[in-house]
Amino acid sequence: MKHNLVLKQSVVAVALAVGGAQFAMAQQAAEPAVQKVFVTGSNIKRADKEGSSPVQTVSAKQIAATGANTVAELLKNIPAFGSGASVDGSDGGFSNGASTASLRGLGSSSTLVLLNGRRITSSAYADPNQGKSAVYDLNSIPVSAIERVEIFKDGASAVYGSDAIAGVINFITKSDYKGAELGASISGNDDGEFRRKTINGVWGFGDLEKNRFSGLISFDVSKRDSTLMSDKDVQQDLYGPINGRMNAFSSSLTGSPFFYKERSPGSKTFYNSYADRANVINRVNCDASQQITGSIAAHNLLPTDTLVGRTFCNINLDNYREVQGAGKDGNVLSRFNVQVSENITAFAELSYSRNERSYLGAPIATRSTSATSVFAAGQPVQNFQLILPVGHPDNPFPDARSAVGFRLMNAPGGSKNVNEAYRGLVGLKGTTGNWDWETGLLWNRSEREELSYGYILKDQIARIMTENRTIAATIADPGVTHNTLNTGFAMVKQIDAKASTTLGKLPGGDIGLAFGGEIRQESIGLTPDSAIAAGKITGLVGSSLNGERTVKSGFVELRTPFLPNWEMDFAGRYDKYPAAKSFVPKVGTKWTITERVALRGSFAKGFRAPALMQIAEGGVQSFSTAIDTLRCPDGQNYLNGADRTDCSKSFSSVSASDPNLQPEKSKSYSVGLILNPMKDLDILVDWYRIKKTNETALLGAQTVIDHPTQYPKGQVVRDNNPANWVKDANGVVIPNSGPILQVNRAWVNQGSTEVSGVDFEVAYRKSLGDWGRLTSNLNWSYLHEYRRAEHPGDVAANTAGYNGGLSDWSTTSGDNPRNRGTASVTWSKDVHAVTATVNYVGPVSLLRRTNNTETYAAPFCHYGKNAAGKTNPGGSEKFSDFFPGLNDCEVKSWTTFDVNYAYTGIKNLTLAFNIKNLFDTKAPYDVRYGTTTNFQGYNTQLHNGMGRYFRMSANYKF
Q1: Which end of the chain has fewer surrounding CB within 10 Å, N or C?
Q2: What is the pTM of this model?
Q3: Nearest-5° angle of CA 16, CA 17, CA 21?
Q4: pLDDT digit string (tens) for 905-933?
């Protein structure tokens, strides 16, 4: 991809008083006009080659050369973007159907997204994961309508306010377009998977100078196919033996039930291990082709599993596991301009998008060896447990109650998610004297519907207990399940105004001044299905939120070219939220040493207000899985009285909102070197450092379990029946050690995250005479530090190059590869253009090194076995058979090659053929993503399983 390395001018820091400076106000001799433009990061026009902060620009031609079908695909190839984004792939996350961006790995909530210079509304999601409290869905922006993307890779809160801590992405759509264009594309890999079809078009009419009006209407419609998990483009030769991925065993919960004997009368705990296998009975009422006998080797079972050596019915869940859900997308975007007078132009933007995702899902199953949560709006969480009484026609135990496990084989499964976004903008812009000004009125609303099929109605399933109804009759009854519909909206209403001018001259040129303000109303509402709100559904969350706030802001910027080769920029912004006020400054400078060498730097403070979902009335409900370290201290071996489920315990959580949360704060620094050693060569080296403090985060479930007395806002709810308490190694009963029923958490201000690194960009252009033109680009990002302290006073260890939550066991950060880069070469001649690109993602270590204040005597792998043959905390003991050394305990680096060919030899027609991953390099093996829950076989934020991927497109201009 070609990147313009000429750095655009950006803002930087608090505006200084104008009156105190000695300005040269005298009339200057006429000079040749220099065209100046607005660039992301500032509201002052400036010449193209000015700048004290880095802005990476990606043009429509460059976007086309990448073969990207979506905005998210495009950004994933830019090295400055890291982990912490939502990926629009398969079902199972809190942000199903959405795609987000995460600059510097700081999360989507610290990356501000603009459309034509104004923010877009967040979508109607309540994602409790770190850095995802505000979900700005990129699927609402069609690639075909984009003229360019400007990525401001520096703190920009002093200009744009909240959410711009890590930087800004500004999608600028086509505007001054004349004529019409129609395009189509089709894509898929060499196995016929991940297929996508797209039709798009644009029509530009009028001429603002000649006709006093102009307009543009564009559309983009696409359809993508469902793709099931497979063994073709992942390293199945490793996933199979180590993780048991895609082995013959999938799930023992079928229409043939399992029965688990109660340990003691009234305890509500049940036998479920190999040692107690005589107290577990199952039916085998299925075809012989569906029957298997549990095997440790063949089915990746633990020796303690009650399925070992047992014949049972099996359902193949691989038939429902998608790495990409089916989708239908539609976008319409329009822009209009009317020349009201010689110096005033009225403008308007209207857009609509609809993104539908359909996900497969197996019929729902239940296993009542532990209680299931039932959520009801405004009520404490209730627990429901299906226990067959003695004498029930299905209970095989004559002297004990029984838990039961089975699947409602006739129930529908899966879900459908629909996001719709509406956006309207009207405004005026013009020139009055020496002032350029603009004002606008924005309305942006996002709506979401989430339809989930076949969830269990509590009162219907309870008839097994209350009416002695048989399990067979229950499975046959379609009225036992209910299709739920959750709805939500998020909205922004905004009025803004800004103006810019020049105040006079300094030795280096015009003094620029800009100021403005805005009033913005933000609102969000999430409404669960009425059956969920009434507490009629078991085992399904339904978040309920209702919040609104008004934000008032003002900003000022000043550009001061003190000398011909030295300039400084200042900016400041004041924001008033209902519960908080904030003023943040920014200052930047650029020193042009020679025509070939320049230095620049910036310092900025920033802030991010708590997202509405974190402070609005209501709460976020979820299910979590963690190790109950009281009952299973090492994550592998459970205590006397516990069972294997305690080593990987699933439970419900309610995450309470807190209207008293305070804004996050940040400080960012950057120093850059710009080199132009020759006319056709540009080199940019940029160092950056960003530190966020007072972060708003949801208390981690594992943290609350491990430290139950340290966090008053967290609560571990356990079974209080003394009969279910466990004993330690000495046989002493541990008080209040019953199974976990629920872990309640809350949003808190805690800790900090600090990142630093170096961005390196090179662009080289060479004319080959009659042989055409050659353009080469390198874009590399090196992560020097990634440190997170979950709580004030914690030790913030450097986890760059590691999975943060493993390297420092006290944190929850994700994968942080040290190096990411792309390099491309484009050769163009007459009607031909060929681009070859290499993409690189560095390795990620899975070693454990520290736990807050504790530094381990020697690093060890989280997975496999140690030297003594004991299984490490992460399990997957066979991992060591393939990766025995410490240096092997990592996700390997990944290098792929792409090629794109474009042909324009037919009048008005452009044909393009793109191949991604030309050599069909499989995504690197990642032990964490081959399980029954994370079955994709790769980390979707860093890699993909598409393999060799083809895309053909045609565009015709009328």
Answers
A1: C
A2: 0.89
A3: 100
A4: 999 999 999 999 999 999 999 999 877 66
